Amino acid sequence: VKQKHLLKLYQPLMNKFLGSVDRIVSTSPNYLKSSKVLARFKDKVSVIPIGLDKSTYPTPSKDRLEYWQKKIGDKFFLFLGVMRYYKGLHILIEAARNSDYPIVIAGSGPIEKELKQQVKNSSINNIHFIGSVSEEDKVTLITLSYAILFPSHLRSEAFGISLLEGAMYGKALISSEIGTGTTYINIDGKTGMVVPPGNSSALRQAMDYLWNNPVIAKEMGVCAEARYWDLFTADKMAKSYTDLYNSVLQGAK
Fold it and tell me: Is the whole-model pTM more than 0.70?
């Protein structure tokens, strides 16, 4: 997405390679539908969403729950991830102007310094950068959070693992419509809210709405978790790959 000029040189090799393989896997029907590259090979594309195994995630200890509750409270918006150009955090910061609800940003990355400077320049004091966290602290933060923010605005965000983790723990979701897996995980008005990419006003409206409607936010979280169990478990992903491999092997006989 970012290296558009290099893509012009690489594209013939990419298309030759994709043309030579037996099957291609897309992690969501949304990505397949919106991909100009995959449109050329749609007859051999299978959709297999990424799956997570909740049993492999740690259970937050009482100490860690109390630690984070004292540090940031027990009602806050949460972003989890690496701070990269396509994550839309600069849009989130703009959306947070003059708001008063806590927003926690967990993670680090190449644009961390400029994001912190943006917060400082905007005189925003309700955004909390807490850096990289352990797996236990990650689960603790998701557990305590009110809703998950996922403002990625470019197709470089092909799926959205932390968005799915939020769904797995029954949290309402806010994401952008970028034609990828984010809007396969998050269904607007059902599991959360979907806003136009790069639109800080729409993002702010979505945050305000969820914050001021806790019953609806809770219902969306319940739907998000149900969608995880229906579509995104590791067992379902493994079975789909097993079936795909068997299909390819049978075709090769």
Answer: yes
What pLDDT digit, counting tens, does each position of 203-235 carry? Answer: 999 999 999 999 999 999 999 999 999 999 999
Average pLDDT over residues 199-203: 98
Report the first-to-last Cα separation within the chain, whole angstroms: 38
DSSP label at residue 61: P
How far is it, in rounded angstroms, from Cα 28 to Cα 159? 8
Residue 87 has what pLDDT? 98
Q: Which one, of 91, 121, 39, 106, lies nearest residue 195 by Cα?
A: 91
Whole-angstrom distance, CA of residue 72 vs CA of residue 229: 30
Is pLDDT at 1 greater than 80 in this prediction? no
d(CA 252, CA 129) in angstroms, rounded, equals 52
> Number of C-alpha atoms within 13 angstroms, CB side, residue 169?
22
Please count the residues of the chain: 253
Mode of pairing for the β-strands spanning 147-150 and 127-131: unpaired
Query: How far apart are alpha carbons 166 and 55 in whole angstroms?
Result: 15
* Helical segments of 3-134, H only: 4-20, 29-34, 36-39, 62-72, 89-95, 112-121
Can you tell me the distance from the alpha carbon of 45 to that of 21, in angstroms, rounded to the nearest whole number? Answer: 10
Distances (CA, A) of 111 to 115, 190, 201: 6, 32, 22
Separation CA 179–CA 152 (nearest Å): 11
The token pair that represents 198 in the structure block? 């790069």
Is the confidence at residue 19, as pLDDT, over 80?
yes
